[in-house]
Amino acid sequence: MARSEMHVLQDGDPEAPALLLIHGLGASTAWWDPVVPALARTYRVIRVDLLGHGTSSSPDTGYEISAQACRIGAVLDRLGVERVAVAVGHSTGGNVATALAEQRPGLVGALALIGTGPSISADISDSALSRLLFSRFPGALLWRLFPGVIARKSLSSAFTRRIRIPKALAAGARRMTHRALVSTADASLEYLFDRPIPERLRRLYLPVLVVFGAEDKRYRSSSADDYRAVPGARVELLAGVGHTPMFEDPRRTCDLLMEFAAAP
Questions:
Q1: Most buried of 110, 231, 245, 262 (most Cβ within 10 A)?
Q2: In what order do the strands lie in the sheet with 111-114?
């Protein structure tokens, strides 16, 4: 695996149980800002920018979901974290969290997936713009010429409620290389094509919380029902919320995470 530098943020008591937050495609640690203060009162909250995202490095290769998970596992090892109470993943970050649990079953105590599509068929984000953008060419040219326009368009599908969206979110997306964006998207599709998330979860025998926005514009909200095939999985559908529950309804999202993490 190519050498890379991972950006890590920690909040809360370093002696408290660890809570790992993994962002999605085109995002960064900043996407968790609304829920971190409350979570950090009880937990050691650890956030990592995925490879090619935020201020982590952007090499030419190494964007496979398994590689992203392996890197996060190495970060936790360096931090001296022997067990994560809950690994929380948003969207594509849910794939990475699941892969981490697959690779390191003793490291992950439970999984919480927020807006994570269970399978390829759940994706409803396809558009002419996205097909162009995620092509190697002319996608790279479009990204180089109009990164701001594309970033704003992407944010418009990530949010349903009218909220104040920090400029840092769009700025973070604009900083990404086209190679990192496309490689991460392709890696996510490959991971889901190989095996849907609910099928993977059934083999892990871990507590699972699934949080979905009822108005999600990127994945069919009805696809959240696919997770009910996972024994014991708790599925929560938030009314009036889109793809980013931690921004659109941070209080409810935080309450759900806290309840789940505190459960025996």
A1: 245
A2: 8-11, 44-48, 18-22, 84-90, 111-114, 208-213, 234-238
Q: What is the pLDDT of residues 101-159, one digit of tens each?
A: 999 989 999 999 999 999 999 999 877 777 778 887 788 888 888 777 787 777 888 99
Distances (CA, A) of 62 to 47, 128, 184, 187, 247: 20, 28, 9, 10, 29
CA distances for 133 relative to 95, 130, 137, 207, 264, angstroms: 22, 5, 8, 37, 45
Buried b / exposed e along 149-185 (16+ C-beta atoms within 10 A) = ebbeebeebbbbeeeeeeeebbebbebbebbbbbbbb
CATH topology for the 8-262 domain: Rossmann fold (3.40.50)
Tokens 């993994």, residue located: 22
Domain boundaries, the chain: 8-262
Q: What is the pTM of this model?
A: 0.95
Contact 96, 116 (CB under 8 A): no
Percentage of the chain beyond pLDDT 70 is 98
Alpha-carbon distance of 180 to 239, in angstroms, equals 33
| Ranges assigned E (strand) in the chain | 8-11, 18-22, 44-48, 84-90, 111-114, 208-213, 234-238
What residues in the chain have per-residue pLDDT under 50? 1-2
List C-alpha distances in Å: 74 to 13, 20, 182.
21, 13, 24
DSSP category for residue 42? T
Tell me which DSSP letter residue 45 carries: E
Spatial neighbors of 138 by CB under 8 A, at least 6 apart, are 132
